[in-house]
Automatic annotation (TrEMBL):
PROSITE patterns on file: GLYCOSYL_HYDROL_F1_2 (PS00653)
Key words of the record: Hydrolase
Gene3D superfamilies: Glycosidases
Pfam families in alphabetical order: Glyco_hydro_1 (PF00232)
Keyword Hydrolase applies: yes
InterPro entries linked to this entry: GH (IPR017853), GH_1_N_CS (IPR033132), Glyco_hydro_1 (IPR001360)
Family per record: Belongs to the glycosyl hydrolase 1 family.
UniProt name for this protein: Beta-glucosidase
GO MF annotations, alphabetized: beta-glucosidase activity
Organism of provenance: Ensete ventricosum (Abyssinian banana)
SUPFAM superfamilies attached to this UniProt entry: (Trans)glycosidases
Biological process, per Gene Ontology: carbohydrate metabolic process
Length: 429
């Protein structure tokens, strides 16, 4: 049944009250970033260019004309950052490794020892402070050489290079890193990422004792009404967000709704692919920020991704009121009850896998005239985290195997095409 407007302050039992006792003793609380967004030091330590280094050079690609050449300078200031994490009581840090710091051209022919040294220092510093590293191998910063020379992820050739890169990371860091994420929000790259899973399980897992998974992003899709058409539209929306990546792992093929609508445009999974993908994740990472109503729409005029689903996303109740309080980004509404629902959905559909919330947070506008005291008086963000953590706690009471939560982001950072115009930090930088 669709969530009713009258239930907005507590749909499905989600409250605003939450405390540490609401979570298991071994539950992991952490913060998250990604390499390009925080490291900086673009031309230091032997690093090669990624697609984002080049993309952000071009005029009008980034909202404020900025780039990640310096970012928050974590490359030089990681000790300060780790010290701050420790003072705040976080037990884990999710960060990504820059592929081009390990192999500057992405090819895996010659390892960059300066890059190895940097990540060794970061990992060791974290462990000295009692903070566990959760490492993402790929968070959107593809080596530019691979993009130019072979078309990046559109080429099957890239699989072997990603596997070489992953193997180098497992070999150099796996004695201390016990939680690996292949690809952040895979979109087109889900199958390719499992070359890394195969390498890890065959060569390293037995000796190192770690686990490896992937991170997907998903809004909750709430049917706009109780009509069958809207319910099918919402289910289809979830198939295109979650099922695209998880169904091949747990069920051996893409969701039926995708096969019916996309047909031959979907990659064909060979028997070898299916064998590689079968149960090819030790845990599921979920990036979740917001929720939308989804309604059936036969004549959707939006981009093809929505047309083929015959659905449209709506941000208002049938009464016309917003689905929740809006953050800075036009797509981000505060809807904690949707968080509980998506966690329960994953547990029910995919046999209750170990789950980590690998990103969750909200943004606010950056203004040059903002007064520091006003920025720090961050009531909306506090309310966001309280209600969303309460939703996680309720999902755990529902029986969902949620094992950790990572706030996005630890620091203000380069927010991709938005540059530095949005603040997503969980702690003022």
């Amino acid at each position: 049944m669709a969530c009713r407007r009258s239930e907005v302050n507590g749909c499905d039992g989600v409250s605003e009250e939450v405390a540490r006792r609401d979570f298991p003793k071994d539950f992991v609380f952490g913060v998250a970033t990604s390499a390009y967004q925080v490291e900086g030091a673009r031309r230091e330590g032997g690093k090669g260019d990624s697609i984002w280094d080049v993309f952000s050079e071009k005029k009008d690609n980034i909202k404020d004309g900025s780039n990640g050449d310096i970012a928050v300078d974590q490359y030089h200031r990681y000790k300060e950052d780790v010290e701050l994490m420790a003072k705040l009581g976080f037990g884990a840090y999710r960060f990504s490794i820059s592929w081009t710091r390990i192999f500057p051209d992405g090819l895996g022919t010659k390892i960059n020892e300066d890059g190895i040294t940097y990540y060794n220092n970061l990992i060791n510093c974290l462990l000295e402070k009692g903070i566990q590293p959760y490492v993402t191998l790929y968070h959107w910063d593809l080596p530019y050489f691979l993009h130019e020379s072979m078309g990046g992820w559109l080429s099957e050739k890239i699989v072997q290079y990603f596997a070489l890169y992953a193997e180098a990371c497992f070999e150099k860091f796996g004695d201390r890193v016990k939680h690996w994420i292949t690809i952040n929000e895979p979109r087109q790259t889900a199958v390719n990422g499992y070359a890394a899973v195969s390498v890890y399980r065959k060569k390293f897992k037995g000796a190192q004792g770690g686990v490896i998974g992937l991170t997907i992003d998903c809004e909750w899709a709430e049917p706009f009404s109780d009509t069958l058409e809207d319910k099918i539209a919402a289910d289809t929306w979830l198939d295109f967000q979650l099922g695209w990546y998880l169904d091949p792992i747990y069920y051996g093929d893409y969701p039926l709704a995708m096969r019916e609508r996309v047909g031959d445009l979907l990659p064909k999974l060979s028997e070898a692919d299916k064998e590689l993908l079968q149960n090819a994740t030790d845990f599921v990472g979920l990036n979740h920020y917001t929720t939308r109503f989804v309604a059936h729409a036969e004549n959707q005029r939006d981009i093809h991704f929505y047309q083929v689903q015959e659905s449209e996303r709506l941000a208002k109740w049938q009464s016309g009121e917003p689905i929740g309080e809006r953050a800075a980004s036009e797509w981000l509404y505060v809807v904690p009850w949707g968080f509980q629902k998506v966690l329960n959905y994953i547990a029910k559909r995919y046999h209750n896998p170990p789950l980590y919330v690998t990103e969750n947070g909200m943004d606010q506008e950056e203004t040059e005239t903002a007064i520091l005291e006003e920025v720090l008086d961050d009531k909306m963000r506090v309310r966001y985290y309280q209600t969303y953590l309460a939703a996680v706690a309720q999902a755990i009471r529902d029986g969902v195997d949620v094992r950790g939560y990572f706030a996005w982001s630890f620091l203000d950072n380069f927010e991709w095409a938005e540059g530095y115009t949005k603040r997503l930090m969980s702690k003022m930088s």
